[in-house]
Design the sequence.
């Protein structure tokens, strides 16, 4: 995997700033908190943050996001999406109880190949695919990912989203083979793992639509409704 | 016209925020909702117009501070601006009006 910084934004800096100005001032923004590894030694910190957020924000399901896009938000407070990237095991062991304590719906973004890897392969894979676990290892010698069984058990209450297959990114020149693997194969692995089709997708580095039109086409063909990027939540269909 | 103190504070916030261990912290962000579906409305209606106006103004000020000190701007600078705005205001701007504290909490 290359460390090259990929092109994330199809627009110029000026256009992007105008987009942000208009989006924030126009109220077209969604509040999110992005988590990755969530080790137990930071449990109190996460708890304080989500406790504070719970005073001002409502949980946000996929249906709630649909309502927001449609202009039909009826909850008394705005919505907040706590996102837990990567599929690390501490997202279940540490973060899930906190989310549930404060009534939030977690959005778990998982590279589809990761939970199915044998334990002995998980750490080398993570190290070579930009998957950074907690600095202090808490599961030494054990699996470091959540399991599909754990995901399936909470999939009615929380959102599970596809984070490509191998935690990869795209560029304008990404090959058809890469796109097939990272979009089509990952979707099939996701369905096999969790028993339902994911409706939300995110690339490594949060690439939005417009960077690679074939990627946009495949995401729609695979039934994805939303693309989660660094700057936007884009409703695809 | 932004004061030097305001600009200094923005850059101090950027330094403080970017020195954290992103791999294991919660990072608040605002994401813009963009509807690309066929037949979509031109824009998503605002939930709270006055809060949105304040947020837009806050972004303008932070971005102006960055522009004032950085001759070359790129996408990373925009991300930094948003990160500062989100960190400062995700809780502050969501608080209820003083007068509403006598009632059940309500946002709209």
Sequence:
């Amino acid at each position: 995997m290359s460390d090259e910084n990929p092109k994330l934004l199809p627009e110029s800096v000026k256009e992007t700033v105008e987009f942000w100005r208009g989006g924030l001032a126009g109220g077209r923004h969604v509040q999110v908190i992005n988590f990755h590894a969530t080790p137990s030694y930071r449990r109190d910190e996460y708890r304080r943050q989500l406790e504070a957020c719970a005073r001002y924000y409502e949980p946000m399901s996929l249906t709630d996001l649909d309502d927001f896009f449609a202009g039909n938000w009826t909850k008394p407070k705005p919505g907040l999406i706590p996102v837990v990237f990567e599929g690390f095991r501490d997202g279940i062991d540490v973060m899930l109880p906190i989310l549930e304590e404060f009534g939030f719906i977690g959005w778990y973004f998982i590279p589809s190949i990761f939970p199915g890897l044998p334990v002995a392969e998980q750490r080398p894979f993570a190290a070579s695919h930009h998957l950074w676990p907690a600095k202090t290892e808490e599961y030494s010698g054990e699996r470091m990912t959540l399991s599909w069984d754990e995901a399936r058990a909470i999939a009615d209450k929380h959102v599970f989203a596809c984070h490509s297959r191998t935690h990869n990114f795209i560029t304008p020149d990404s090959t058809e083979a890469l796109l097939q693997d990272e979009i089509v194969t990952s979707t099939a692995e996701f369905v096999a793992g969790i028993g339902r089709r994911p409706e939300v997708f995110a690339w490594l580095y949060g690439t939005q639509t417009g960077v690679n039109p074939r990627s946009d086409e495949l995401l729609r063909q695979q039934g994805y409704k939303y693309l989660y990027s660094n700057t936007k939540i884009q409703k695809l269909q | 016209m932004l004061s030097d103190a305001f600009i200094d504070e923005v850059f101090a916030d950027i330094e403080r925020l970017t020195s954290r261990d992103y791999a294991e912290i919660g990072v608040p962000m605002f994401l813009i909702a963009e509807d690309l579906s066929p037949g979509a409305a031109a824009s998503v209606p605002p939930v709270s117009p006055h809060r949105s106006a304040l947020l837009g103004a806050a972004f303008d000020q932070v971005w102006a501070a960055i522009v004032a000190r950085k001759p070359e701007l790129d996408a990373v600078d925009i991300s930094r601006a948003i990160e500062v705005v989100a960190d400062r205001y995700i809780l502050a701007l969501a608080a209820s009006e003083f007068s509403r504290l006598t009632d059940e909490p309500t946002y709209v």
